[in-house]
Structure formats: C-alpha cells, structure tokens
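Sequence in, structure out. Go.
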Amino acid sequence: MPASIGFRPCEARDIDAVLELWLRAEAVPRPTDHAAALSRRLERDPELFLLALEGGRIVGSLMGGWDGWRGNLYRLAVDPAYRRQGLALALLERVEEALRAKGAARIVSRAFHAEPGVVEFWSGAGYSLDADQACYSKDLG
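Output:
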C-alpha cells in the first residue's frame, strides 16, 4: 500500500466523493446510493464509516455497522487504480478492530458477487459464505 494513503472516518462533506468512488469502483448500484441515505448513515456509528485517502482524494471506503449484537460491513470499494495494493484489507482490518472494541463477536459482510474480485477478497480475508443463511431484502422506495 502506498505510504501516502491516510485513513479517517467519513464526514458529511465527503458524501458526493464517496458516491463518485462507488461509481468508479463499479459497485453494484443500490436504492440507497444517494446523499440523503449516506447522511442518515453518518448519524449512527460515524466512526465505523471509514475512508482511505491519497492527497485528499477518496480512494477507498468501507461502512461498518454495529447493532449491539453483530457487526455488519457494507460497501467496501477501492478505486480501480489502487487495487491489489492492500488498501481493501487495510480498511477491513481497521473497521474490524473498531467493531471488536464495541463488543462484536461476529461480523457479517454484505457483498455482491457481481463486483470485481469480491469472492477472492472475502475468502482471502478469512470470511466464508454462510450457506445456512439467505439474505432477503425489500426496497421500500
């Protein structure tokens, strides 16, 4: 990972740049990919929504969530120009540590198979597909 990469929690002023990162990273579009939804996300556990920056430019993001029972991970995204340099793993390790500090004994990642490298990354990071569970969702649009 380049030594010039820094990490910090997301702030309201970063929202547009985060949405642009998700587009560059080819994240599967979701109904919650808009500024109002990210603003609401920042109201809860803002320290778990971590950004990676180089020279002030957002090049990576990972949203963590803590519901008091389990840790959750959403929207791991790395700018294509920064992939394969350890940035995703660095974001993951930082958010995992923050969730561990809150008391999480289990972390679940929401990932989309259509996103580049998702299966290899998560399995390489020690996560396994939980065949006993299904994820059901409903868009309230």
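Check: The longest strand covers residues 57-66. The mean pLDDT is 91.
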